[in-house]
Amino acid sequence: MKVILAVLILSFSLLNPQALKNKPSREISVKTISDKEKRDLDDFIDKNYHDSLPGLEILVKHKDKTLYHTARGVYRFGTKIPLKKNRIFETGSVTKLFTAVATLNLIEEGKLSFDDPLSDFYPDFPNSEKINIGHLLSHTTGIPDYAIHFMEKNIEEHFDQGFSKENYFQDIDRKRVYNYLKEEYVVSQPGKHWEYSNGGYYFLGLIIEKVTGKSYFTHVKNSIIDPLNLNNTTFKDPKKARGKKYICGHYYMNDPSKDNAKPYPTYYLPNEYAFSAGALNSTLKDLYRFYKEVVNGKIINKDLLEEAMTPYELKNGERANTGYGWFIHKKNGKKVICHPGCTLGFSAITHFVPEDELFIGVYSNRNSQEFNLCSNNITLVNKVFSYFYN
């Protein structure tokens, strides 16, 4: 049984060579999407996100002005409850941006440095004296992924019972994750190769706790969520929070285009499993505010931010797909920082053009084992980009 690591598919799909070509672009000062373009978006969404199926929310903002915002589909499959705007989704790997910013903030405060070795915190981990904070942030450690291993295991063991709290990832704790990473790690030269690593960002969460003396969740809340007034961003368990804004995720076992395709409602991932690699829940409005305020120097200084938003240089001189947190590419000569996210029942794409303060965010409350349901989301993002940078 193979679960697609959608976050990688998204990342490489977004790094389209065509996006790197310098073509004339619309002046972003127009600050609008035309009526014709809105109809184009509406038609695409109506065709690909049916009212009776799990759907999506899309938000396009420019300098605090909402240019396009809509939601389609249902809150939960089998009901007629529509998916409304401004609901809380599971963001998956978008969490890593908060982990990266929290780590950078500690570096700015002098409590950490890029060169601090992992051995300062976990001396028993193989090769830990050569792996440093910069490697962890840039996905260049060689530390393996843990998420796919445990996700496959839980699907095999619990799918027939459904994804309820009683049997969904409840046997995963930090010790099991750490032991898996330690046992599966193959010693390599850090900084030599780029390979996306949930395990590396799991370590960053653990290190944040050791440095601050607080839980990762508390530190991120105190240092990022509260200062930026992200009032709908949380690590809370939706069932305990009892909030009406939390929506239901859906997971397809087979091709969703088939008549007999059935999405299974999924439970939000336990914090100790997703942790600093994927436990954050948020709204698109809050993620826009996060991007804007961080880029404007609200949490970390702009010099450090510029370093974080520059592709990491590997030992062979080539540039990685990420800096310290963000995926980085260009649209018509303009830097775009972004991060996708994927969990068992949700998918997300977030893009931001710092120079123009243009944000494009897409949430979907569905995902699939073997079929990339995120491709429509990518097409939608690129369609919006084409209105400004064509």
Overall CATH architecture: 3-Layer(aba) Sandwich
Distance from first to last alpha carbon: 41 Å
Uncertain spans, ≥5 residues at pLDDT below 50? 1-24
Count all strands and give the number. 11
- Secondary-structure-derived class: alpha+beta
- Major sheet summary line: 6 strands, antiparallel
User: Helix tally?
Assistant: 13
Mean pLDDT: 85
Could you explain how this protein is built, in words?
With 390 residues, the chain is of the alpha+beta class. Helices cover 35% and strands 15% of the residues. The protein has one domain: DD-peptidase/beta-lactamase superfamily (Beta-lactamase). The chain is built from 13 helices and 11 strands. Strands 2-1-10-9-8-7 form a 6-stranded antiparallel beta sheet, with helices on both faces.
Brief sketch in words of this structure:
With 390 residues, the protein is of the alpha+beta class. It has helices spanning 6-14, 35-48, 95-108, 133-138, 147-158, 174-184, 198-212, 216-225, 238-241, 271-278, 284-295, 302-308, 375-388, and strands spanning 56-62, 65-72, 89-90, 249-252, 263-266, 281-282, 327-331, 334-342, 347-353, 358-364, 367-368.
Defining key terms:
single chain, 390 residues, alpha+beta, Beta-lactamase, 13 helices, globular, disordered N terminus
List the helices and strands and how they pair.
Elements: H1 6-14, H2 35-48, E1 56-62, E2 65-72, E3 89-90, H3 95-108, H4 133-138, H5 147-158, H6 174-184, H7 198-212, H8 216-225, H9 238-241, E4 249-252, E5 263-266, H10 271-278, E6 281-282, H11 284-295, H12 302-308, E7 327-331, E8 334-342, E9 347-353, E10 358-364, E11 367-368, H13 375-388
Parallel strand pairs: 4-11
Antiparallel strand pairs: 1-2, 1-10, 3-6, 4-5, 7-8, 8-9, 9-10
